[in-house]
Structure formats: C-alpha cells, structure tokens
Amino acid sequence: ALMLVTARHIVDPGWLFCPVSPPETVYMRLNKKDYDPKKDSNGVAYLKVTLVDHGAKKYLVRDDDDEVDAAIVPLNWEDYSQDKYDFLPLALSLFGSPEELKQMEIGDSIASGGLLSKGSGEKRNYPFFKFGNISNIPDEPIKIACAPGLPERRLERVWFIAANLIEGNSGSPIFYTPPEVCSIAGVTCNLVSRPFVLGVQSSTFGGADIAGMTPIEDVFKIIEKGAPLEEDLFRDDETKRDAGAAKPR
Q1: Do residues 234 and 93 lie in contact, with contact meaning Cβ atoms separated by under 8 Å?
Q2: Which of 6, 123, 133, 207 would give a disulfide with 171, using CB separation of 3.0 to 4.6 Å?
Q3: C-beta neighbour count of 82 within 10 angstroms
Q4: From CA 219, how far away is CA 200, in angstroms rounded?
Q5: What is the 3-state secondary structure of 77-101?
C-alpha cells in the first residue's frame, strides 16, 4: 500500500482550532522523472489528493486519541508511477521500532527534510535539510496553538526537537541519525546504529529554534488500524526479520 503521512492539522485544521476552512483536496508537488533544465520549462507535476469526497473523509486519524497530530492519506500506486515522477517511498521497516524508540535520549542527533514556501525552486523541488538534536521527551501532553497569539490550544503528545524548523514544514519527516562511528566496520556501538524515521513535524515555537514532533509510534498506530489484514507491518532493521516473513510492499 502507498500512503501519504502528514500532520493532522494540515488536513483537519479545525482539530487544532485553526481559523481556516478544511480543505477537500490538496496537491502533491512532485519532480518529474525526465527533466532537462535546458529544454523543459517546468520540472514538476501537481497531483490531486482527495481528502473529502461527497462528505466522506478519505484520510485516517486517531479517532480514539485526540492528542495525536498525524494523519494518513491512502494513495493509489497507479497514480504515482516512479517511471514518471522522481520520488522514493519509504518502506515501513524504516520506521523506528518500539525498542529503538525506547533507546532515544536527549541530545541524540536528528535530520529533517522539507520545502520552503516560495523558496524551493520554481521549475523543480529542491528540498532543504536541517539538522539538530532531541531536546526533550515530555511525559505529558503539551498545549499547542495553531499559530502564535491564538487563544485556543490543543493538548498534543509531542517530543521536542532542537532545530531551526519553520512553519509550513508541518508533516515533514524527522529522522534519527546515528553517530558516524556506529557505521565503521568492527566498531561496537551501544546506540541504535541504523538511521530510521523518528516522527513527523507537528509544530514550531517561533524564535526558540524548537519544534514539536509527533513520535512515529503514534503514526504507526494509524497505519496499523487502517491497513489491510495481509499488509506487512514489520518495522525494524531488516536483518532482524524472520527468514520466513514476507518482504515489505
């Protein structure tokens, strides 16, 4: 199955008390596979993603948990040909496992990738990558507003990330990046030695160089609930997969 992962307040702004109308459609801006900057005037395509169809929601959220700023939009493989569009889906195995997430600590390194509104290229997407660290892992939900100055706030379950992440990047993936020493042959590392998806950006705190991140465990629970019974939900280092287990789709 192919799914788009984003922040819930992007597809359901009323959930975060955002003063905007809920969108029924959004557009995914993808780089075209074949693009020659010397010949082609445009290197991107805009693909329609339906969020609401005749009043029915086409996205999935945690209906049983109102503190999770994440949403999943199922997509059709046929509409996203990798022969036409330059993108690489992430296998679910690249999500952090419960055991890996328990080992995360304040100070661990992270990286995030996203686009800047009106700043990531006109003819082509040029993602910006930012780097930082885990700042804190609260034991309680935190009150988050849609934007600075708005009075209504939503209690959200987030981790804090110390990085200069900006508004407009909500839903961007945040990766755990192990120290380089962990990748050297023959070196034993007590830390998690593989990079994995740690969560998705959910909020920013203007001027503080701190962002809120929905941990990937909460994203996985949405996928788990909405996935077909035959879907492979393995997430961990592929070398730990049982020999007889099915490969990820």
Answers
A1: yes
A2: 6
A3: 11
A4: 8
A5: HHHCCCCCECCCCCCHHHECCHHHH
